[in-house]
Design brief:
There is one protein chain. With about 160 residues, this protein is α+β, with helices and mostly antiparallel strands. It has helices at about 1-40, 60-75, 80-90, 120-130, 135-140; strands spanning about 50-55, 90-95, 105-110, 145-155. The termini are far apart. The chain contains five helices and four strands, in the order αβααββααβ. It has two domains: about 1-40; about 40-155, Alpha-Beta Plaits (2-Layer Sandwich), CATH 3.30.70.
Amino acid sequence: MTHVNVGRWSLVLCGLLAAACVGVGVIIGIVITPMTASAQAVKTFEAPAGMILNYVESERTASFEEVITRLGAVIADSDDPELVRQASGWRVYKALEPGPNNNVLYVSFIDPAVPETDYSVVQILNEEVPNEVQQLYDTFNGSFGAGQSLINLELFTDLSGIE
């Protein structure tokens, strides 16, 4: 009898362990999925101008710049007038000073911002060059250190006309 009871308890214990593993897997899947999706988040501006701050690992700046250069070529070759309009106010700057954790800061300054238009680099590339987007996404996404931030800007004062 004792042998049969040990066998049953072993099965029960194995079943409980399997259920616990599945539960942990589900929790990890729920936590990790939003982080992956955030890299692909829609980037639209609600203000007349805006910035996207990109914190890139210092050893991966060539990868980031490769994707941004490809984006520029794709936009230049595009027949989409909305994309060309979107790009007309888009400038990308590279900070000369090192950023947090020695990341390199790239600032996309957009003025004017086209309302309700997605400025996500990956989304634009997906629409324009879908056959290249996976490789470009991997290169782009792999370059980030501290990630990205989107900032909506409203003009406070214009000092350019002061003489």
